[in-house]
Structures are given as C-alpha cells and as structure tokens.
Design brief:
InterPro entries (chain B): Sporulation_related, TP_0789-like
CATH superfamily of chain B: Lipoprotein localisation LolA/LolB/LppX
Number of strands of chain B: 13
Shape of chain B: globular
Number of helices of chain A: 15
Distance between the termini of chain A: 30 Å
Oligomer: heterodimer
Largest sheet of chain A: 6 strands, mixed, barrel
Distance between the termini of chain B: 90 Å
Protein name (chain B): Outer membrane lipoprotein-sorting protein
Keywords (chain B): Lipoprotein
CATH architecture of chain B: Clam
Order of helices and strands of chain B: HHEEEEEEHHEEEEEEEH
Largest interface: A-B, 25 and 22 residues
Order of helices and strands of chain A: HHEEHEEHEEHEEHEHEEHHEHHHEHEHH
Number of helices of chain B: 5
Number of strands of chain A: 14
Chain lengths: 419, 252
Amino acid sequence: MKVSGVYKMLLVKLALRNLTRHKRRVIAIAIILAIGIAVYLTLDSLMLGLTQMSFDNLINLETGHLQVVKQKYWPEREDLELENLIVWESKLSEKIKNQQTVKAVVPQLKFAAKLNNGIDELPITGYGLDIDQAAQVFQLKKYIVAGSYFTDSNYQAILGKKLADLMELKVGDYLTLLVKTAEETFNTIDAEIVALVNTQNPKVNSNYVYVPLNIAQNALDVDNKISQVIVRLKYEEEVEETIKQLKKQTIMQEKELAVHSWRDSAESVIAMSKAQNIETGFMMGIILIIAAIGIVNTVILSALERTKEIGMMKALGFKKKEIILIFMIEAAGIGVLGGIIGLLLSGVGVYYLTTVGINLSALLGEQTFGLPVIGHLYGIYAPWHFGFIFISGIILSVLASIPPAYWAAKKDPVKAIRS
Amino acid sequence: MNNILVRLILGLMLVVALSLSGTEIIAAPSAAEIMEQVDEYQHLQSAKIESKMIITKGPRKMVKEMTSYIKGADYGLTKFTNPRDRGSKFLKRENNLWMFFPDAEDIVKISGHMLEQGMMGSDFSYQDLMESTKLADLYQFTIIGEEKVDGRSCYVIEGIKEEGKEASYYRRKEWVDKERFVLWREELYARSGRLLKELQTKKVEQLEGRWYPMYQIIDNKLKKNSQTVYEIKKIEFDLELPANTFSLQRLR
C-alpha cells in the first residue's frame, strides 16, 4: 500500500509533536550538534584564511605566479648553487613579456650568504633583483616600515625588520654579506641599508636580504646570469594557460628552460593545509559522534516512554517502516534545529574572523610556531561549506536514529500495549 | 796602449759584475719556488698530532683538545678529547667530510654551505680544512718586498688566485721566513679586497729537518673579538697508520 500525502503529513505531525514533548532533551542534543558545526566552520574559515594568506605571501613576495628556470636548476634549487643559471638577455625577456597574460617580469639571482654585522654572522638567503621591475612583481614597497625603496642600483640593501633587529642593524647602517663566487672564492658585498620590511611572510622578515641585481652578479662573478625569471600575471587563473603558451616558445627548448607555477613552490603549505583539514575534521568528528550518541539516546528514551503508544499504532495498522520513519523525522528535526543554531553560531564566528581577524603577532609574539604567515590573519567565508555541513548534520542525525528506531518498531504490539 | 789597458780593465770589471749578478739570480728563489718549499714543509706524508684550540668569541672562551691522524693532503681523522666534546670525530677523505657526534650516534656528511661554517665554533672553516691542493698550484705568487717579523727576515709574497681555479681566497699575502720557509704571518682577502682572516705564527720548531708552526693565532677580521689559537702539543711524523684508519666504520 502506498503512503498517501495526508498520511505522510500525519507521520510528520506525529514526529514534530514528539519533538516538543521533551524540549530540554531535544535542545541539549541540538546544541551539541550546533557546537560541532560551529567549531568546524569557524576553524575551517581560519584555515582557509591561513592557506590563502600563505599562497598570497608566496606569490607576492617570493615566487610570483610563475618562475622560469633552467630545467636542471629546479630539482637543486634549495641548494642555491651558482650552477645552471640563465643568461639574461633581452630576447628571452621580450618572449615572456609578449604573452598577453603577463603583467610584469623580473630577473632574479638567488644566492646563499652570511650576514655580518662586525660581531656576529648569520646564514641568510640573498636576492639580487632588478630594482625597477621587482617593484612591479613583488610587494616589498608595501611592507616597508623604515627607510625607502632602492633609489639606484648601487650598494644598497633591504632586509626584514626581524633580521635587522636580531643583528642590531638599522636604516643607514652598512651590512656585509659574505658570499662565495661560482669559483668558490669568498667575496663581500658592503651595502647601505636603505629600508626595512615587515611582511606577513616570516621567511622574508627573518631570512632574506635584497640587493640590486648588478651588485649581486658582480659579487658572485656570474656576468649577466640569473637564477630565475619571476613572472607576474594579470590574473591568477591564467597560470596554466600561460605555462602552456610559454612551453611552446622555441627559446624555452633552446635554452633548456622550464616554467613552474607558484603551486610547485607551495608544496609544504599545501601539505600543511591538508594536515590541518584532517585535524579540524577529526575535531568535528568527535563532537558529531557525541551528538550522534545523544540522538541514539533520545530515540531510545522516546521509544521506552512511548512503548504503549507504539503498540497502539501498530495495532491500528501502522507498519514497522512507518514507525521508523516517525523516529527518523524526529531525528531530522533535531538535525535541522542543531544545524540552524550551528550556522548562527558559525555566522558570528566567521563574521568576526573575516572582518576583525586575528593579530597573530600579538597572539604569538615573535614566535611563528612553524606557521608560514605572521601579522593579521583574516578568515574566509565559504558558503558552500555552510550548506554542506548543515546537510551533513541532518543526515548524521537521521542515520543515528535508524538503529534505535528499528529496535522500537519491531516490538510486538500486544506485549507493548500490556507493558 | 792606455786605451787598450782601460778597455781591458773595463772588460774585466764587466765580466766580474756579470758573474756576480749571475750568482745572485741563481741564488734568489722565485716566489713560486718559495711557496713550493712552504707547501713541501707543510705537507705531511703521515702524522699524528695532539693539539689544542682556544676559541675566543667576545667574552666566551672555549678550549678544544684533539688528536689528529693525517695521511697526505687527502686523508685526516680528528678525535676530540676534551670532556665536553669527547667522542666527536671528523673524517676527511679526499673531497668529502663527515662528522660523528656521540650524542646523536649518527654520521653526518658536511657539504654545501655547511662547509663555510667555523669548525666547532672556531675561526677555521670546514672549507679551510678541506683545501688540500698546494697553494703554488692555485695562486700566481709574486715577491712584493721583504720585512722582519718578530726579528726574522721574511719575504713578503702576494698570491692572486689563478683564473678558473677553485680557491676560497682571491688574494693572500704571506710573510715567509727566508731561511726556515714557514709562514710567520698570512693575510687572506676576499675578491672585493676586504681582509677576511689573519694568521700569525708565534712559535716554530725544527722537527726531523723541517720547521713546523707549533702555535698559531687566527683572527676573523669580519668579526670583532673573534680569535682562535691553535697549539700543537706533540707531533709524530711518518707513522705507519692501519689501512682502515680513515674508514667510515672507524668514525663511529
């Protein structure tokens, strides 16, 4: 026999009435569910913000959208050896710049050095940059907290404020970089500090020193060679398309060059993000299991309280699956209620994170605890995550109600009425 | 007649002068020959050295004692014997350097930019230890003067790195004892002309026919108050070292 529309409505009404019988119990379970949802969505917003900020840091301060390097340079890039460098010539520059999607291009020479202040030495990463073009690709200027950007390609240097503080250096002081040339010979770069930067990238703040490209090339004795070409695109979405276009250029094969997306340099951030997602999911899982146990408990208690009623319903012709359906609708009601409260709580949390944010520097002090970002962190609002979690909460509630509902529905009606 | 006599006397004088100057040319060694002799004296066929390093970093002072076994320019094993570092070892095999720290119980290969760090916090970099090529093969040496250092007559020799050769220092200035062929003083420069390190020998001893530096001070000129004293307590030359002395297994 098919369940008619009126009949269905009757089942829904019965379920909803049951929900209002024990308001406190229902609200308690709904709140547990809501907390699980709120914790997940708030942390999720924070993690999305952290990941996005890490990616922005990488693109705006380290890798641009694309890097063009010698094929053999890429696997060994962390070693910062002065091998497999690119001879920087206008022909290559033009070929890259001529791509419609390209906004700006900067040649860069990355090298290992020791920063010396006359008392101590620290290993750092040096960047030789074309100072005019670098301003179009990187956002160094935006983060200057003392001094001003390079004025010319003379012996000038920009470094992170944290590094400068550590070495007791300030704008106007001279620093010494001890480097090794391609022939393994020591050389020094004595440069005046023209600016200090305080970015949201801890590596830039504490490990990088920027000097004009010609100064670096001269000190490292590499003529007009560079380690990579950093490319900034008009739009981030055009990364894959530009890689395809650049790979078609014959100069890329002639010079044995490879193009890498910023994502190729973000492996650690992506891995960290995945690990954090698992962690957040795990936390939510635990809270939702508690909520599921609560729902099972609620259904069992309802069934025990309504044993005679269930017996009566069966005697009146209600089928087992209809009784199960009533309990499922009841659980779905708890799911909807918990979901709505959860979304409201999440809304408040996520609104705070996206508008006010968290000042990591104030929270963590000088320590970064391995985080790839520092400074002010904002959350991200992801509507589809809200929708997904809301529906998941309802499904979980319904699923949790099935076993105890089945147990209640299979009772013998005669015994149930007599009990 | 008088004319002939004058010519004869002048001729004789010329012959004497030429022969004298000729003797002088043969007697005075070239800069390269001097440095080869220095290299020769520094080169150890095989040796066991007991030595001490006193490292000064500002107000801090550290003392490291060690025993080193050396075979030619390519093999060396150093064991630290002072209480704090006892059991730490360094092994050099040709162009490779390993270290063993007993606490970590692991062998670590020192390579790349790690080679530029000071060995055990001293002003000798690992790279300094690794350079086994003779100086005369890496630099173009020229005698630029003569000076006295601590009362000893020295040649002042300047070495400029030869194009294409791999050497840590672009220029070096050496004060070489004219008779003993030891370096009393050495200045090491960067390519930019900046003085990086200065080495002074304060004591030499004649051992088995050669003069050998026994007490040296090295100053890191890029760092204030950074100095390392290297003192040899005992040295034995031409030892019979077991074949496995310089094996990785012996490093543990």
